[in-house]
Structure formats: structure tokens, C-alpha cells
Amino acid sequence: MNEQEELMDSLLNVDLEIIDVVRELREGNWDSISLKDQVGDLLKIRDEMVQKLMSLKGDEHSCDCGHDHTHE
Known about the structure:
Oligomer: single chain
Number of domains: 1
Structural class: mainly alpha
Radius of gyration: 16 Å
Helix content: 55-70%
């Protein structure tokens, strides 16, 4: 598995963890400060992973899906 694939796998795991924590918050009527902090921390980690993934891709706009992802 290359570095991009590892990052994408890690992103999926962080996303699933965020979903689990948000579900816990919802069940607790959004009252848990520690769970809110945990979501904030997980989102920060996720943002950093996305930035690293994008920097690995560089200026490449191809993801092999057949679509042009060029943003102007």
C-alpha cells in the first residue's frame, strides 16, 4: 500500500470515528463537552490528513475516474 492509499485508509477510519462520536453526542442531547472536544480534535486531524494527501497529489488532477477535476 502506498502512502496515498494509507492516508485514504486513515481518513476513512477518522471519518468513521467522527460519525460514532457524533452519534454518541446526539444520543446524549448534545450535552457532553468532552465529546464535542473529541469531535473538534478528530476534525483537525482529518483536515491535516486531507492537506497532506492533497500535497502528495501535487498538481495532478486525475484520479483515474474518467472525470476532469481541474479547478480554475
